[in-house]
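Replying to the earlier thread about multi-chain prediction with a worked example.

Input:
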Amino acid sequence: MKVSTLYAPTLREIPSEAEIISHQLMLKAGMIRKAAPGVYNYLPLAWRTLKKIIQICREEMDAKGGQELMMPIIQPAELWKETGRWTVYGDEMFRLKDRHSRDFCLGPTHEEIITSLVRADVQSYRQLPLMLYQIQDKFRDEIRPRFGLMRGREFIMKDLYSFDKDEEGLEINYWKMYDAYCKIFERCGLSYRPVEADSGAIGGSGSIEFMVIAKSGEAGIAYCTACDYAANVEQAELKAIEVPAADVKELALVNTPNCRTMAEVAEFLGFEPEHAIKTLAYITDKGPILALVRGDHEVNEIKLKNTLDCLFLAMADDIVVREQMGSEAGYIGPIGIKEAIIVADHTVMNMVNTECGGNKQDFHFINVNPVRDFKPTIVADIRQIKEGDPCPHCGNPVATARGIEVGQIFKLQTKYSKALNAVFVDETGIEKPIVMGCYGVGVSRTMAASIEQNNDKDGIIWPAAIAPYHVVIVPVNSKDNRQIELAESLYNQLTAAGVEAAFDDRDERPGVKFKDADLIGYPLRITIGAKTLEDNLLECKIRRTGEVRYLKLEGCISVIKDMLLEL
Amino acid sequence: MKVSTLYAPTLREIPSEAEIISHQLMLKAGMIRKAAPGVYNYLPLAWRTLKKIIQICREEMDAKGGQELMMPIIQPAELWKETGRWTVYGDEMFRLKDRHSRDFCLGPTHEEIITSLVRADVQSYRQLPLMLYQIQDKFRDEIRPRFGLMRGREFIMKDLYSFDKDEEGLEINYWKMYDAYCKIFERCGLSYRPVEADSGAIGGSGSIEFMVIAKSGEAGIAYCTACDYAANVEQAELKAIEVPAADVKELALVNTPNCRTMAEVAEFLGFEPEHAIKTLAYITDKGPILALVRGDHEVNEIKLKNTLDCLFLAMADDIVVREQMGSEAGYIGPIGIKEAIIVADHTVMNMVNTECGGNKQDFHFINVNPVRDFKPTIVADIRQIKEGDPCPHCGNPVATARGIEVGQIFKLQTKYSKALNAVFVDETGIEKPIVMGCYGVGVSRTMAASIEQNNDKDGIIWPAAIAPYHVVIVPVNSKDNRQIELAESLYNQLTAAGVEAAFDDRDERPGVKFKDADLIGYPLRITIGAKTLEDNLLECKIRRTGEVRYLKLEGCISVIKDMLLEL
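Result:
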């Protein structure tokens, strides 16, 4: 590609709405343009990179026996009503009516469609297992689309669905996909980590997220500093903390005037927050809830929701606390509460002679011994992991990091096959629901995540595998025919050798060309100047390291190809 | 691909709604499944073929300097309001609102989006010419989706847009695309014809359609039997027919009781229909219209609409004829009509001593001499071409055929750049609207058209270039290990040699396997039987011709590759 004709209109001013670096750099480098909030045009450079990510996904899916197909974007409401998700999806689903007033949505995901396809055409165990996938646009009407391609409303996903006759089959395909996903993100040149995840709205029994590690990541990850355990902080398990045995003292209600916060009570009564119980009041679709954690811990609301199996969870306001629970905000506690499901973190149940709210203004209990003094409805792991907490696998301290979720795999089990009656007849003639898994890669998100992870003050640093072009050739003086001729010849040779080269043939100052080369992030820049030309050398600069190598003209093509393999 | 695992669920019963052969065969061969009316799932076989057509389009667009990008499916209403097409598109456009009640449509085409992209980023003639394209899903809410992929509501198109600084630039790119389109349809192995076309709702000054010739085609084509002229019958030009000179007689109004049709009047007055004028009354957004053609000719309403430059045209009813035009249905004519724009076909103006309606019940004029007796508002070519009419280029008779439109190229000129203010500054500093063209290939339609053109009673006959697989290998006896081993080895060798092979490893009777092979339409079927195995031969059957060749095992891979090049 000659840069003079390349449609990559670079920008000097970045719109202020671009808050994160990938969004800023993609706008600046002429890779994307906004068509509407959360809806983007992918310009040629971005589209080249996306096609490469798509091709990597395709090859890895095919390698595992996946068969590619293509499902529609507009999906009839009837199917979504069968699984109940027509309602559950709420405002996040784009909905429309056709000219005959029939309801449709724009597919935010394709479980309903694929399951309805398979239920019509698969009847026997002989037709299983089956792995079907597509690489397709998806739609979610985010309430606040932002961060460029990171949280868009129209985006590209690879989604594969596995169909098995039993649990063992699912287990095999699930780990095949795990392996394929590792290969995909490795081949894309990304530093990533698979982490245990919550299976959330999709449903099912097990899930792993693939996180690209980046400071700007929206997700928290906890990982062990000793073993290979890693999990989304939403999900990371915690064992109950043991507490040394001690003599049990008598429960007492003490006056704590104007002490509403944990810090105030702790100071007034002279204990450390980790010695007390922290009580939070929520309202849910299962009724009012008290959640108890140790004073220095935080409640993990995802775990709490999963523990309760509730759809809705929000902090209770003062009126609920007073009128329904018969308590007082700031003084709430589990002892003598009027009405609430009590969910205690398992560490709480090990505490001895601890403190908690007295359920009346200006009073707290001391010498609380949970097992003796109140009866929790549920005891479970409901707290948020934090730096230094023990790894649930080996006990060593965990560290935390930020990550961008680029892929997720789910064991759906029979959630959709039961809802949509996708059944097969097994070897013994018995009809059973098909056992399913689903596996997604955020293709456009992977491009953005790659930029979040690979950039510097000058622009993007592409891993060679997904760079729009591998090499840019820059003649320093566009008036010097010998430079231009060599550049052109090199361009033709590289192209013939399968290297994707851009030739900056613009009549611009070298500074402009170098700046654009850094911004667009070509892995290699080959500069042709008067001096190197004289010496029959090429100046070859590695974008990532800034290292400059001088290559002999003779045999340079194979040297360049070798260099690219390392990038 | 092993056929035992291939997701191509064949059907025995074809749903009655499948009216045409491509629809029937794609359902039967397990290539497509309906998700909603006009909305289809492309199963693996279909998707493989579509990917090949897409790749052919991509290569030919790239070869002409096209740059691929990807525009969004959901498009903001504002842009469509700027060009006025938010209204013009009517019910055919899928519309939706996002959660903030902002109006969007699902792109039926992308002129608005691409022009708005280019207007923001292109300012100078130095950035032109530019050819940008995408291969993308498009949406049209057809009132009656039918014919499978032929008239769907969600379908795949390749669309390229050219941007030039002047007419000459457009001319160059238009013919580049003409050339690319010929290459695309040739490479797809289709028998096609480029025909002059109407530029219709898209607008602009010139247009050529690419038609795949097929009896089931929805479009009529007129082509010269001597020169290379061809046109859509909607568009085909006709010159005025000359009439021998004759003495002009005196106009007279004669009684023609109960003669309402051309045939009745002709018989009653004793002349041939081609001697008389046929008058049709229409209502349009420009007011009431009389259209005049020779008695044996038909009005071409597309030409009439274009001549009048009107948006709406429909036959006038009796009340309009009576009350607005002051005439009588069945007796309408141009002489003394009360109110109507008179559009006369140019042949009419050459007629001498002809007949027409008398504008009152039971009366016709005779000895009408158009130039003398009435004053048409417009004289133009408004009639429909028919078999035997003279070619407008060489005068030889034209023949007619049916075709399926698979591509169309348009000179848009400045229609969209003016509406959207997409301007550039030329070499002399003057601001001008960009000169545009647009060029579309119906990708999913091309697949269907290929089947319409290439099939027999047993199934599909794929041209090798777009066949989902090139070869199917069928061992006759799936219990015979030697047959299976040879089949497997051949399958591996062919795959390694880049031939896309399917290996029918199913435990089925040979008849079932042969039937499926014919239905799916693999260009070559290699049968491995006991006898040929003994003789070290392969039976190789060409799907299209039925011809069977026996190949020596040794060196068979290269023979098979050569055979495929001819298919």
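Chain A has a mean pLDDT of 94.

Feel free to reuse this layout for your own posts.
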